Structure formats: structure tokens, C-alpha cells
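Narrative of activities, Objective 1.

The group set out to show that a structural description can be obtained from nothing but a protein's sequence at a throughput compatible with the screening campaign. Below is one input-output pair from the validation batch, recorded exactly as produced.
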Amino acid sequence: MEELAEAAGIPVRTLRFYRERKLIGPPRREGRIAWYNDHHLARLRTISALLERGHTLTGIADLASTFDSGRDMGELLALGTPQEPTEETPVRLTPEQLADYFEGEVTPENLASALALGYLAVDGDEIVHISRRLLDVSAALVREGVPLSEVMAAGLQVREHADVLARMFIGLVTTHDADPQRLRPLAKSVVEAELSMALDRHLPPPRTKTRPASD
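Output recorded for this entry:
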């Protein structure tokens, strides 16, 4: 315990307090010797980083519990998420990096929702987001003032509609014996064009700036 506390740069009494609060897991024991490892050190560094970002110990404990109960990468792949997506690039993040992406929005509830949706998975001490594009867009929407919970709710609706569209295009290819390798770019072009025109139809006109009247 003394060696772990020294490596983490915290007093031993603080480490004992974290153990009592179950913020870190128990050590591996061999007789009277307690062995801590790199996972314990990574968790302690995460706790320190989240405390610096304004999270409370209670909030960190809730996040840690949610994080520990999340699906790992193996479970997510078993549910059908492709191991090597054709176009999407997975992103590896530490918990504190995720907190920086969504400042003030990384709550146990939002983290649990993202894990349940399969946007996030756990790989050791890291979090893996399935798509760099979705991560960046989600963060941009949050910066625009949209709550992360509503961003994920919208994402679920988009996924449901996207599944319907994917099945429709695959049905066309199957029915008419078309080249499936040509499906992705053609389907994307149709969806992007229709979505662009739908936004044109429904978006309000841009705001115009008016100059104050001069005396």
C-alpha cells in the first residue's frame, strides 16, 4: 500500500480512505502480502484527475461503479458490433479525457446510457468510443448547449431509422442481384441528399443582424 501511495503521489491515509469508499478494488493477496498493480495505479490517477476537474468523491464513486459494470469490448463485439468498422474509427479515452470532451455532462446516468447503447465499451482502464465522428459531433452538440442525455436520445432515434434504411437498401440489392460492394456509397449519397433537402425544408431562416438606428 505504501508503494502504491508513493507511485500515485498521495498519502497512505488517503489511499486507505479510497479503499474504504471502494473507489479502488482490493489487492491480490499472497499470504500476508497485498499486491497492487497498474490497474490500481491507473484508477488512483483517474480519481485525482477527476477531482481536479471538480467532480466529488461521491460522483466519482458512482462513475467508477458504472464504469466497472459496463460491457467490455469482447461483450460488445459478441453483440454484433463489427471489430473493424468499414469507415468508423474507434477512439480510446481515459475517463478523465472523456470528462474533458463533455465537461459537466459525464454523469453516471449518461455514462450508463452510452454503455447500454454501445457507443462506449470498457477495455482495461480505458474507455473505447465506437466512432470518432460520432464522438466529435456529440461533443460539438453539447458545446452548442444541447444536453448530452438529449443527444444520446436523438442518436437512438437516428439509429432506429438508419437500421430501417439499411434493410431497405440491402433488400434492393438482394432482390435485383446488384453488386453489394456498390451499395454503401450509393446508399450514403441518397440518404445525404434527402437529409440535406429535408433540412432545407424544415430549418428556420438564418438570423439577420440589424444595425441600431443612428441619431
